[in-house]
């Protein structure tokens, strides 16, 4: 087991960066191009609030699917576990994140879980607020508090690109409307979903979200519990079984702690009682996970003994 | 948080027993009938080797799918991670345990994971041995050692019943042969699989298997490591994402530690660094999990703070 | 074999009407209610232009899916067989008419055929015209000519209901947009599709469409060929394999000539070289076909020796 | 429209032979190799019993799936329509001929139709006989009579190869046993199925089967009706919607008469009231149909005006 230090992280970054070569940058995102392919950054914040960063950790990228974690926390807060999981399942899916067949092929048309697009659209439609602007405002305010970063903002360019490329998500949402799973206005639900995906964050911010999950939902500002621990357990368990698209099983084995990735190349990791991790690495594989970022996550797990399935349950 | 004691376990049993009413006993198993419906037993063995049992913990039932855990350990031991997962995936499936569609609907015809029937048949075909008798002998010897119970034996009646009701497993195996996934003799592979499922165990034995996983693969006799810890991490991670049929996501949320169930009503639980749990409760739900046993597992998790996604990672 | 006469048709109607009891009226259509359940009407027009009608043949109902036949004729006329079947397949599907899974589960995301909703949306998007109003105008003008009925018009109420209940079709259309199958504006394509479905017709009109297909695409006014015979063969073949939702195979066996049904309870039949048939019977089965209308179609086939698979190929 | 003559057929063969280049010979069949790739033969026998043959019409090949037509006739004869279609559906499938997913994905586990492997296994299990040898004997005797060819025999080599490559069919059969669809002995059912597929025939024989279907089930020897016409209508209708694997819709459009193909490159065609066609062309496409043979079938349809969906219903 190695010791966590900035120098160690810099070495780990250099070890993992070559894996970017096997991935591809998601060119549908504005300003994402070949020049971003080799970017790789990491921040780790431990529960005793020490912060370690290395590599391209100041690079800002859109949250994309990592927003699903935030949406789920807010929906659980607003409606409780029973009502949320009345609208969406909690089972891993074994299929691509934007699958529509799964909505059709089972008895109920509930999306499998809140980490796939259909599930996240259904869940984010549950975030309370008087109007769409208001609901996104609430999301952003919460995100600013848990990351302790008042500068967070949505990228208009990303939001517009999400809308322009939104046909698949529209199909998912209208399908759910047709089966009664989605009862709110479809275009409003999608609009909120696109906005949530379009908030720009860097490694520190992603790590702060992981830390929030790892240390019982405490505000970094007031140390108040903003979300009850039992809801966070739910979120982390679902990240473990479903957070890394249809490589979630692989990451449960190889990393062994709750993670959530986004197609921008972002990864949030949360090791309960120990630390939050934020990674960015825009080159992604066919399943949507950062190739270099994923390699880094697995290396950190091994070197720092983070695997919760180890003999000591990941608590060294 | 409550204190672990025999008295506590007896209370927990009585709290959970009513859930048997919503389940059904699997009548295809010999001697399984209505009189078994309300049976419920539990054993817990902590890593400091204290043993607590309550309820019908002396009832013997066939291992059924809990044998998949043993088969996976032996295959990993014999062929290593790379070769095992060349033959079978490690992704959760989101479908019923005996699904054959999944074999057909993806690019490769690899079974999703070793916890579903197709995957377990493919994995157990990897257990080394000169002939079928020899291979089952090896399985049983290993099982006797890790449970410290030389009396374990296969039930001929259960074995015959498995064979007689084996059409679905035959279909899975021949399908895998047709795609080249299963290269050994199909009938031999199935025979071993049926034998593995037919070993009779009671709660203490199931708990011993859980303990073996929880404390680094050490023999209860010699304290030697029989299986390297990295293989056990793999097994536990796969139990977490796929061990409870297509309720695995639910159990990850509600229990929060690796479990594996069988349609005889057996459940093995392993809390890394803390304890092994063995439960029997023959009334099962539509997905194949013990209803009263599952209720008990969730209650234990809550009362004894076993959820690994909690703030302290399940290590109290 | 019986002789075709009005009296025979009236007897056939009374024989078939009781089958309405096993169906249900599609209440999502305006003015469709229980009082319509027992309606049953038929018109037959032979290629020598004799017309026989009986029962509730003057009842007007919306075309619904029978419009798919018209849309396909116009698209073939406008773009030719190669380009139309570049966008849509010609294989029967074996699944429900509004299935979205099938779009996802095959190599290409082409809809299986033009008789299912996805396929018909893709095909109707090919009807030429400078703008949506213009394209629907063309559809209606063509329909007026081949039915020799200038009074045909769209029901605004049905059109509004189609739009209001359009979530599933929207999902199909956006899915096709996401895969590049649908390249035109989705909302425009759907609007035309809804309008086409909303034209009101009675048995005589439906029979006229069947006759048009049966006698080589000749205008009942000018006797000119409006659509080349080779396109009509294509349309009739696809009606035979796919025209009756996922009971098409059943109707190929039991009726044995090309038919197309709609969920309003309409059926168009075309017996090449012999006659066109129009049926209405609003009580439909779970697959979308008129129960009494279907029974009537099968009875006509038997009594009048219309089955093309008979020894004389349906030409008595 | 061209006139049917041996010279015409020889020209049609030469026109169609180049399509063999795009296909592949099924090398799992004994003695099938590259040297067979360009073989192409045809026989046509009209209902007035004139016979026209050309090309490699004397080449013998195994029946393969063309046997499904014979099996269905015998099962209908033995059990009647209701009981046969209680065990198997009559709907086209839209999936590959050896699909197992379809058995699992619908409410009932009935195979879609008797032209796919699962359906044919279920149907041939219905052929009456005291023992397997007896049942095959009955099949062969019937086949000899309708082809007027007492020399027909099974190839032992093909039969052995069928058995050796039978894993997929075994999987289908055991799956059907597990759902109660197949109630007879699985290995016996498969054995009969393999034997049926292994009978060797040449173009004349295949054409005789087509003629039998086309002229009302009359024995070429006694002119007695061996199978009632209503059963033949059923068989021909199912050939039209499902006879050419998942290109059946394509052939309904492009040929327009009932056909059944086999992966040996055989095709049986039946034009009701007009003629039977037998084609062999061992180079097959990815769906299992002879490429040159399919091209020839379509050319014959066009040149000889055989398309039943034409204005005159295929009766020139």
Any key phrases for this structure?
homotetramer; 316 residues; alpha+beta; Beta-lactamase; 2 domains; 5-stranded antiparallel β-sheet; two-stranded antiparallel ribbon; 12 helices
Q: How do the strands of the widest beta sheet of chain A line up side by side?
A: 3-2-8-7-6
The value of Rg of chain A in angstroms is 18 Å
Content of β-strand of chain A: 5-15%
Please give the CATH class of the largest domain in chain A: Alpha Beta
The largest pleated sheet of chain A is described as:
5 strands, antiparallel
State the total count of DSSP E strands of chain A. Answer: 9
The N- and C-terminal alpha carbons of chain A lie at a distance of 10 Å
Protein structure class of chain A: alpha+beta
Mean pLDDT of chain A: 93
**Named CATH architecture of the largest domain in chain A:** 3-Layer(aba) Sandwich
Number of helices of chain A: 12
Q: Write the CATH homologous superfamily of the largest domain in chain A.
A: DD-peptidase/beta-lactamase superfamily
Biggest chain pair interface: A-B, 45 and 45 residues
Count of separate structural domains of chain A: 2
Look up the CATH topology of the largest domain in chain A.
Beta-lactamase
- Which H/E pattern describes the elements of chain A? HEEEEHHHHHHHEHHHEEEEH
Brief characterization of the structure:
Four copies of one chain form a homotetramer. With 316 residues, chain A is α+β, with helices and mostly antiparallel strands.
